């Protein structure tokens, strides 16, 4: 990628903001050194990594590489045989623990985030380093007694000797000849040895070794002869402790040197993962989306390079999102060059930089501040000539600087490049500049190079209008406020507003009219027509904005009403379920009373006709209670965008997903497995792409038309055995032939005759996979749910 273009388009500033989200110096360096991918596949992989990292950060915002450090200097010292300090070894341990923790988390979620898990899977586990450091060094960077048996023994003896030494010194404080010779009754140290502060004039009485004296000379710091041996032993043990600690640190450092490559690999993997997390957090800060990167598909024998540029609601990432005006930048399928005209400070340069910068960002794996349905072709190289190219050192004027850069670009650019020119041909005589700009643009068009140009020259407007593959665009200007609106209009050239602005600012009318009279009348008519087109376009845009706002309000109101209806429906179902349960309790109680009554009548040899009448009435009352209480469908709104062929949708009334294979007026034909069905658009829910891919039913082209579905439920209640048998036989064959996955057969509880007949028939059918009673709240033992094998 052209480094000068990266600087021109301010890509390093984007990387600096990305680096602010990195957690340690190595990942900060990686962010600063990030460059666009060298292939489309690599760029797409990077974008997918960022998407996975963004999902991870959203699910667990605290995820990171906490404890990781840049260990390069430590590893280099260890390889040279130097002893690392305790805190440096703790940094190595912290980095390895951070790597192990993050790797375990990502590997556990490999199904959800396979690309991040692949990076984690490459992270080695340096043998023994963490355990060795943990055993030897405390969290406060102190070497533990358990680091070695020898160190433990030395420190144990050191404690005993120290206590004896202090006890002896304390005793000397209160005994002669030291008690009366003391300047102060304290024990202190000089040069690592315990001493007493003795008055200089009492030196003769207090025998010992003088180590120091006060600045006034009145006090001598004397080590009593009685403790010289203890002081010597205490000092020897201190030196032995120091030597053993150094040996332990050298041993640990040697272990680190032995595992240096593995430790470095962990550090590099953490830096890579931290970079992905930084990309995710920067994307969240920008409210960015992944652009779909596409391969160029040039048509054989044509100049068009097959480029796609579709950026919607695009924002320059370095500008304040609250104040910047989003841009829709789209090259129509037949075009590959865009010529932008409009007033100064109107946003032409920002538009050019936005296109170039978003291309660089997306090819570097960064999400961009644009709508989710934006698309860009992958460019092998991006070249830009923007701004003041004047160079004092090289004695180049602005024009010469631009031409030098343009010559360099022309030598390198090809059909797989993106070229951006701001104010092409500016900085010299207008006539010659326009001719040169026209020739340069024509050269790029004939070479089939994707080009974005900003200019003031009307000759380039005419060229864009007359040349295949080139399209005009303009940035709008509000004559009422004398300020640009920063809206980009593709398809229309910019207007010349000089006379209108002069009039609005108060230039005498006669001067304006004199200037107008010197302009070619044809040019004036063209400007008038163009002005009218712009006004009509603005009116259409405002009308569309009002319509969209009205649609959003209607959708919000419809969603609110649907939520209320859902609540009402939940309440209705709850009430009906309570009533049904109460009725069932009462019927069960009555049935319990009939049993003893029947037995009493039988013992008394009384007729049972009255009891049998009540029994039949009980069964008649019970059958309606077995029917499930069905939720009434709540009216839903049509999808947010028009359906297209190939969309995956949820058919709400059926509870199945399918693919749109035909569209009509107000309805669509849906392929659901082997079944084709027609549904109202309001009954369809457009599924997100991921859900569609994960849940879509298989579909086949040229599917044989299936028989009409007999419906998902058959009721046999109240029918005679023969009639129920015939209807069941016919229904099962039709339901299976129609491709239904399952059906409900309502036979009621009653005496169980119809239930037994149904189950006997189901056992005979080879296409019945299994059957079972319905759930209690859906009919229980009065309903048999039947599942067919896949056809």
Give a written overview of the molecule.
31% of the residues are buried. Helices cover 49% and strands 16% of the residues. A six-stranded mixed β-sheet has the order 10-11-12-8-13-14, with helices on both faces. Strands 18-17-16-15-19 form a five-stranded antiparallel β-sheet, with helices on one face. The longest helix has 83 residues, at 521-603. Helix 2 packs antiparallel against helix 3 (25-32), helix 6 (86-108) runs antiparallel to helix 7 and helix 22 runs parallel beside helix 23 (753-764). The protein is of the alpha/beta class and 791 residues long.
Keywords:
791 residues, alpha/beta, six-stranded mixed β-sheet, five-stranded antiparallel β-sheet, 23 strands, 16% strand, flat
């Amino acid at each position: 990628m052209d480094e000068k273009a990266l600087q021109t388009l301010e890509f390093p500033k984007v990387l600096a903001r990305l680096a602010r989200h990195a957690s340690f110096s190595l990942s900060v360096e990686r962010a600063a050194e990030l460059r666009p991918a060298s292939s489309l596949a690599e760029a797409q992989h990077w974008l997918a990594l960022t998407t996975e990292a963004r999902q991870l950060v959203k699910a667990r915002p605290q995820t990171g590489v906490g404890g990781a450090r840049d260990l390069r200097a430590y590893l280099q010292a260890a390889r040279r045989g130097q002893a690392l300090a305790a805190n440096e070894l703790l940094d190595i341990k912290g980095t390895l623990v951070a790597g192990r923790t993050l790797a375990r988390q990502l590997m556990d979620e490999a199904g959800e985030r396979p690309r991040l898990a692949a990076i984690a899977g490459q992270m080695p586990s340096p043998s023994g380093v963490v355990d060795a450091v943990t055993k030897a060094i405390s969290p406060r960077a102190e070497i533990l007694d358990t680091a070695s048996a020898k160190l433990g023994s030395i420190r144990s003896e050191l404690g005993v000797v120290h206590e004896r030494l202090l006890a002896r010194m304390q005793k000397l404080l209160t005994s002669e000849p030291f008690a009366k010779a003391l300047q102060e009754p304290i024990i202190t140290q000089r040069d690592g040895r315990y001493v007493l502060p003795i008055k200089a004039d009492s030196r003769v009485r207090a025998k010992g070794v003088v180590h120091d004296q006060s600045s006034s000379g009145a006090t001598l710091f004397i080590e009593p002869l009685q403790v010289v041996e203890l002081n010597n032993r205490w000092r020897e043990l201190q030196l032995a402790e120091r030597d053993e600690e150094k040996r332990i640190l050298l041993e640990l450092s040697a272990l680190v040197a032995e595992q240096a490559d593995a430790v470095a690999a962990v550090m590099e993997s953490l830096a890579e993962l931290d970079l992905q997390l930084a990309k995710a957090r920067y994307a969240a800060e920008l409210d960015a989306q992944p652009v779909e990167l596409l391969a160029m598909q040039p048509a054989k024998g044509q100049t068009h390079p097959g480029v796609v540029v579709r950026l919607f609601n695009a924002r320059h990432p370095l500008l304040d999102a609250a104040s910047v005006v989003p841009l829709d930048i789209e090259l129509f399928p037949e075009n590959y060059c865009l010529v932008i005209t409009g007033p100064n400070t109107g946003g032409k340069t920002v538009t050019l930089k936005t296109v170039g910068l978003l291309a660089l960002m997306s090819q570097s794996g960064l999400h961009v501040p644009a709508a989710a349905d934006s698309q860009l072709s992958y460019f092998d190289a991006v070249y830009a000539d923007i701004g003041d190219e004047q160079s004092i050192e090289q004695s180049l004027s602005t024009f010469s600087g631009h031409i030098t850069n343009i010559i360099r670009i022309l030598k390198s650019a090809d059909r797989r490049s993106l070229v951006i020119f701001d104010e092409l041909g500016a900085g010299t005589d207008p006539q010659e500049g326009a001719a040169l700009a026209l020739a340069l643009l024509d050269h790029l068009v004939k070479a089939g190079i994707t080009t974005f140009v900003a200019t003031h020259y009307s000759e380039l407007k005419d060229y864009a209008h007359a040349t295949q593959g080139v399209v005009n665009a303009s940035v709008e200007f509000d004559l009422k406020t004398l300020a640009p609106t920063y809206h980009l209009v593709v398809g229309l050239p910019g207007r010349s507003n000089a006379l209108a602005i002069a009039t609005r600012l108060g230039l005498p009318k006669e001067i304006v009219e004199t200037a107008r009279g010197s302009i070619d009348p044809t040019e004036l008519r063209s400007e008038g027509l163009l002005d009218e087109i712009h006004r009509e376009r603005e009116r259409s845009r405002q009308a569309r904005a009002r319509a969209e706002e009205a649609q959003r309000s209607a959708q919000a109101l419809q969603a609110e009403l649907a939520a209320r209806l859902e609540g009402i429906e939940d309440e209705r179902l709850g009430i009906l379920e309570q009533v049904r349960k109460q009725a069932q309790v009462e019927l069960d109680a009555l049935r319990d009373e009939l049993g003893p009554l029947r037995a009493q009548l039988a013992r008394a040899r009384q007729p049972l006709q009255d009891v049998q009448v009540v029994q039949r009435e009980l069964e008649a009352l019970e059958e309606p209670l077995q029917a499930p209480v069905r939720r009434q469908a709540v009216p839903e709104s049509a999808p947010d965008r028009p359906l297209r062929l190939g969309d995956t949708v949820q058919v709400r009334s059926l509870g199945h997903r399918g693919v749109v294979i035909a569209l009509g007026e107000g309805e669509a034909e849906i392929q659901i497995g082997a079944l084709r069905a027609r549904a109202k658009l309001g009954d369809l829910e457009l599924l997100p792409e991921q859900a569609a891919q994960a849940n879509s039913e298989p579909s086949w082209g040229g599917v044989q038309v299936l028989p009409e579905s007999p419906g998902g439920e058959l009721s046999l209640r109240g029918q005679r055995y023969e009639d129920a048998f015939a209807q069941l036989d016919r229904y099962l064959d039709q339901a299976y032939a129609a491709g239904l996955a399952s059906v409900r057969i309502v036979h009621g509880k009653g005496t169980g005759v119809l239930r037994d007949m149904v189950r006997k028939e189901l056992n005979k059918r080879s296409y019945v996979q299994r059957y079972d009673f319905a759930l209690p709240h859906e009919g229980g033992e009065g309903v048999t749910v039947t599942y067919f094998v896949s056809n």
